[in-house]
Design goal:
The structure holds 2 protein chains of 2 kinds. Chain A is an alpha+beta fold. Helix content of chain A is 49%, strand content 18%. Chain A contains 5 helices and 5 strands; from the N terminus they run H-H-H-E-E-E-E-H-H-E. Chain A has a 5-stranded antiparallel beta sheet. In chain A, helix 2 packs parallel to helix 4 and helix 4 packs across helix 5. The longest helix of chain A has 28 residues. The radius of gyration of chain A is 24 Å and the shape is elongated. The longest helix of chain B is centred in the middle third of the chain and has 16 residues. Chain B is an alpha+beta fold. In chain B, strands 2-1-5-3-4 form a 5-stranded mixed beta sheet, covered by helices on one side. The chains are: A alpha+beta, B alpha+beta. Chains A and B meet through helix 2, helix 3, strand 4, helix 4 and helix 5 of A and strand 1, strand 3, strand 4 and strand 6 of B.
Amino acid sequence: MSGALFTSLLVLVLCVLILGLAHAWGRYLARPPPWSGKAEQKALDLLKQWLSSVQLAQYERTGHFEVTGCHSGKRYCIRRGRQMNIYELDQNGVQIAVWCFGPEGCLAVGDIMLAQKIALETDEHAALAVANRCLARPQVSTGRFA
Amino acid sequence: MARQIVMDTTGDTRHEFDPADPAAVAEAERRFKELTGAGFTAAVRRGEGRSELIRSFDSAAEETLFFPRLKAG
């Protein structure tokens, strides 16, 4: 009888431990990334300071902005995001390719977008030399960006 | 006051210095060399929405931005 009681208690303790660990793991996974909140806002403010008035208006209206590559003259649309967020546009504003590059480290989204803008506008070839490129899917080629 | 802005996980870290103070300028130049030597790219603003990469310290630049080396995503 006491053996069964001991086993039951042991199972109960183990269950509590497992639940506690699962809860802690869940909280760990759900924790905000180090670049969240204040850092994101700071980076967004910096990005806005470095955008042209046209780019800023475009970004505030649509969440993305266009830049012109300094070497090719091609237009790129930089969307809010950490990766796969640079769309090369054709003469009609249709997305024809997706470029993926960004600064090393865990940076806020605004910082990443600002580094991408500066790189394309001032040293396009070097930026694209390190980038990954893939063709834009036809279904996302929905026409001009506003 | 001139400003050096270094992108990092907090958003950025800012260092202000007086361009008329030789010691402060020397410190800013040392920081410039240290960061670019570590792979950071330095850019200065040249008017509204326009920027330019610089390879050497520009004591006349009002605002210099440093971002880490680019890599494929």
